[in-house]
Write a structure and sequence with these properties.
The termini are far apart. The chain is 36% helix and 17% strand. The longest helix has 19 residues, at 116-134. Strands 3, 14, 15, 16, 17, 18, 19, 20, 21, 22 and 23 form an eleven-stranded antiparallel beta sheet that branches. Strands 2-6-7-8-13-10-11 form a seven-stranded antiparallel beta sheet, with no helix packed on it. With 614 residues, the protein is of the alpha+beta class. The protein is globular.
Length: 614
């Protein structure tokens, strides 16, 4: 695990966290339904046979990285055999000069379809993941050789400028190779990696304008690189965020505050303008001002690649800035957009997850039942145990940040040669319930700070925290630090406000409970999910009644007046909702769901009084 001087927090080492419950189940069904099914040898054929097809080389690296991350979590021997075999195969395909490409030499470094550097990025990321899992010197050496080979081709003239490459986005897609290039430098110190990384940062990653300066100068994400023609937008959300991940790595190397400030400003602006109620965004894979427009049904929204990259960017920036809002956003995305992307049987990940309608698989690519989101989605689920906790080591003592709440067991080594290990469990059904118990079970007492995240959606006067029954003062959102000598049997209890909250926008209504967004689903059989309604509430809170369901993780009823006929059906009725992740999760075409419910207009602006009063 790499540690940088400008990181404030670090992921725990692989294997430190063992999830239980729904998150763990999702990871394991993805392993069986996707990672153990895909033919990695066939994906390597695109390199083996120099097939020069559009973006086919990305899949090996994406799936290799996902498999390595999940293997480090589950220690699944069958999955480990798959990644070992895949790595050996790919390493055998690299030429002595470092070339590892699907494209013939005379078309490099762009390829006939503009995706050569994009594919090299994922070859690097897959091999780096294998190195991190196994310590393989061969994998690391292959990465160094590929970076050197690429550096010989890409740069200022007479080399090929990186902003002259790519397929549609003026170099943004190619420039996202920045992150793995700088990670190679962080591990090896190879000068070619730093030279290439520095060149990419200075290029601004885009032929039309420097994307790192654009938002700092007041542009919105969807306006970056705009030429005034909407059909030629290059505000590609996933690739753009990947470039900012690379810029964050450059900040870690140099400490240059301008790089960090650019990433922070961009993330803040994405939150303000793009991230919707389910924690994701984009349409046709580009930023589009989606936060304001999210109530309007839109083609191709919430690409799963965007969902994953947003989660990863939040987690990495959280490590550097210690900003608890990023953990709130990570949680929102995890429990909504990410959970919604996975079909119930784990055999498919949706390419798009709209807030209404139905989900479906994306187009098949590589002549296989796979697309980019099938390959990226598992990486997002693998991120959950990584992001659960961050560790900060300092002279005054270690700090363990509790970023996410989920049933789990954790063992971590504290800093110092003779420091004991800390072992604790999260006992909870969160986010079904709002009570979390953290119980310590280690044999030797350990002194450190454990910092609980108090999410901004929970009313502070409803938050309760205790240590061994002793009440703690909770008077602010963010981190609640608790420093003491922790012994076996010590227990922290945290209770969060899980009342239903009404959200209104553009004459639509939605209900959120804790971090979870709710949706109507036609399988409940209680009416037309697109029907206009008026949700009953008191001071913005909706009385939710938990109910059973044979398809949903969570299900409730809420009081609503349905339709437009107050004379015939003016009384509120209990209408079913489920968590967004479960809505439409079988992908059956007969099933429909909806998050944003159209609000019935009452022009009288007063309660209806029937003619025939009792």
């Amino acid at each position: 695990m790499l540690r940088h001087p400008f990181d404030k927090q670090f992921d725990l080492p692989a294997g430190s966290v063992t999830l239980t419950g729904i998150p763990d189940q999702k990871i394991r069904i993805i392993t069986e339904g996707t990672l153990k099914v895909i033919d990695m040898h066939a994906l390597a054929d695109y390199f083996r046979n120099t097939m020069d097809m559009f973006a086919t080389g990305e899949f090996w690296g994406k799936l290799m990285r996902a498999s390595c991350l999940i293997c480090s979590y589950t220690n699944d021997p069958a999955l480990r055999q798959i990644v070992d075999t895949a790595a050996t195969d790919m390493l055998s395909l690299q030429r002595e000069d470092g070339c590892l490409s699907t494209c013939p030499d005379h078309t490099q470094p762009n390829g006939s379809n503009g995706s050569d550097l994009w594919e090299r990025k994922y070859a690097l990321m897959g091999l780096l993941a294998y190195y991190e899992l196994t310590g393989s010197p061969e994998a690391l050496e292959a990465c160094v050789k590929l970076v050197r080979y690429t550096n010989d081709q890409v740069g200022l003239p007479p080399k090929t400028p990186i902003t002259d490459t790519g397929w549609a986005f003026c170099g943004i897609e190619s420039s996202s190779i920045l992150e793995p290039v700088l990670r190679v430098y962080q591990i090896t110190g190879d000068p070619a990696a730093l030279e290439l990384g520095t060149y990419i940062v200075n290029s601004g990653c885009c032929k039309r304008e420097n994307i790192f300066e654009a938002i700092k100068n007041g542009k919105s994400p969807m306006e970056i690189g705009s030429n005034g023609v909407a059909e030629q937008s290059i505000a590609k959300a996933y690739e753009m965020m990947s470039c900012y991940e690379g810029l964050l790595e450059m900040y870690k190397l140099t400490g240059e505050k301008k790089y960090l400030e650019a990433v922070e400003k961009t993330v803040d602006t994405i939150i303000e303008q793009e991230i919707n109620i389910a924690g994701s965004g984009s349409a046709f894979e580009c930023w589009y001002g989606g936060k304001e427009r999210q109530t309007q049904p839109t083609y191709h929204t919430m690409e799963t690649c965007v969902t994953f990259t947003w989660m990863q960017l939040c987690n990495r920036l959280l490590q550097v800035t210690h900003n608890p809002q990023l953990a709130d956003k990570l949680e929102q995305t995890m429990y909504n957009a990410l959970m919604a992307s996975l079909r119930a049987d784990g055999g498919q990940i949706s390419k798009y997850s709209p807030l209404e309608g139905m989900r479906s698989p994306g187009e098949s690519q590589c002549e296989m039942n796979i697309n980019c989101c099938n390959a990226n989605g598992p990486r997002a689920f693998a991120l959950i145990p990584q992001a659960m906790y961050h560790l900060q080591s300092q002279e005054a003592g270690d700090i363990v940040y509790v970023n996410l709440y989920a049933p789990s067991e954790t063992t971590l080594a504290l800093s110092g040669k003779k420091a004991p290990k800390a072992t604790f469990t999260q006992k909870t059904d969160y986010p079904v319930g709002g009570r979390i118990e953290i119980e310590f079970t280690h044999e030797k007492a350990a002194t450190f700070m454990l910092s609980l995240r108090i999410p901004m959606w929970s009313a502070l006067d409803r938050v309760k925290a205790t240590v061994n029954g002793e009440q703690l003062k909770v008077d602010a959102y963010g981190w609640l630090p608790i420093t003491r000598e922790w012994k076996a049997g010590d227990k922290i209890t945290l209770e969060l406000d899980m009342r239903g909250r009404l959200v209104e926008q553009n004459n639509y209504q939605a209900i959120v409970r804790g971090p979870v967004t709710l949706a109507r689903d036609s399988r409940f059989g209680d009416g037309f999910v697109d029907e206009t309604s008026e949700v009953e509430h008191k001071d913005g809170y909706v009385e939710l009644t938990p109910v059973g369901s044979d398809f949903a993780w969570m299900a409730f009823t809420a009081p609503m007046k349905l339709g437009t006929d107050l004379e015939g059906s003016g009384e509120a009725k209990q209408v079913h909702l489920c968590d967004f992740g479960s809505a439409g999760n079988t992908w059956e075409r007969s099933v429909r769901y909806r998050v944003w419910l159209p609000k019935t207009l009452n022009v009288m602006r007063s309660p209806y009084v029937p003619y025939n009063r009792p």
